Amino acid sequence: MRRRLRGLSKVRTLLRRRFFFWQMQRSIWRKRAACRVITDQLTNNLKLSKAHRMIKQFAFGVKRIQRRWRERQIIQAAQMEACRHGWVRADMARGLSKTAALHVEKGDLEMRLQVIKDDLVVRKRLFGRDLKVWAKLQAKYEAWKAEQEMMASALALMVGEGGSPGRSLNVLEAYDPLSVPPLKPTFSIIGPANNYVVLAKRLVELRQSIQQAKNRQWAAQDRTRVTSGALV
C-alpha cells in the first residue's frame, strides 16, 4: 500500500507538470490563432474600397448604439420594477393588505409606471447635477490636500530632523472648509422615505389630466355630431 501511494504521488506530480505545460502550449496556440484571424481581418479591410469601409464603420456604430440602448432599457426596466414593488410595500405599510395593494396596483398599473418613469428621469437629472458639484469640490479638496502636504514637507525641511516644528505647523491644523473630503452623493432607486406619497399625488394629477383630455375629446365629438345633424 505504501509503495502504491508513493507511485500515485509521483504520477500526480508528473500529471500536474504535464498538464501545466499542455495548458501553456494551448494558450499560446489560441493566441496565435486569434492573432492570425485579426491580421487577416485587417488585411481584408485594407483591400476594401473607401465606400465599403465607411459602410462597415457605419454598421459597427449602429450595432454599438443598439447594444447600449438595449442595456439602458434593461436597466431602466429593472429600476422601474423595483420602484413598483416598493410602491406596493408602501401601500401595505399604509394599512392595506397585500391582496388589496396588488388589486389597486393592477387597476392603474400603466399610469403608475408612467409616473415612476418620469420620477426616475427627474431624480437622475438631479443626481447628475449633484455629481458635477461633487466632482468640482473633490478637485478643490485634492488640490488643497496636495498644497497642505507640500507645506508640511517644506516646514519639516526648514525645521530639520532634530528640531521641533514648534507653533509654525499649527497653521496646517487651522479649520478650513476643505479639510474634510466632500461626501459623494448616492442614488437611491426607490427614493426617499416620503417619495411614494409624492408619487401618489402625481398619479392623481395624471389621472385627472387624462380624464380632462377625454372629456374635451368627447365634447368635441358631441359638437361634431350636433353640427353634422344641423347641416343635414
Keyphrases for this structure?
232 residues, mainly alpha, 5 helices
Can you tell me about this structure?
With 232 residues, the chain is mostly helical. The protein has one domain. Helices cover 81% and strands 0% of the residues. It is extended, with a radius of gyration of 34 Å. It starts with a helix and ends with a helix. About 4% of the residues have low confidence.
Number of helices: 5
Summarize model confidence as the mean pLDDT.
83
Most strands sheet: none
* Total E-strand runs: 0
Helical content stands at over 70%
Q: Would you tell me the structural class of the helices and strands?
A: mainly alpha
Strand-residue fraction? Answer: under 5%
Distance N to C terminus? 112 Å
The ordered H/E elements are HHHHH
In the predicted model, the low-confidence regions spanning at least 5 consecutive residues are 166-175
Q: How large is the radius of gyration?
A: 34 Å
What is the overall silhouette? extended
In short:
With 232 residues, the chain is mainly alpha-helical. 81% of the residues lie in helices and 0% in strands. The chain has 5 helices and no strands.
Task: Give the topology, please.
Elements: H1 2-47, H2 50-93, H3 98-107, H4 109-159, H5 195-231
Helix pairs in contact: 2-3, 2-4, 4-5
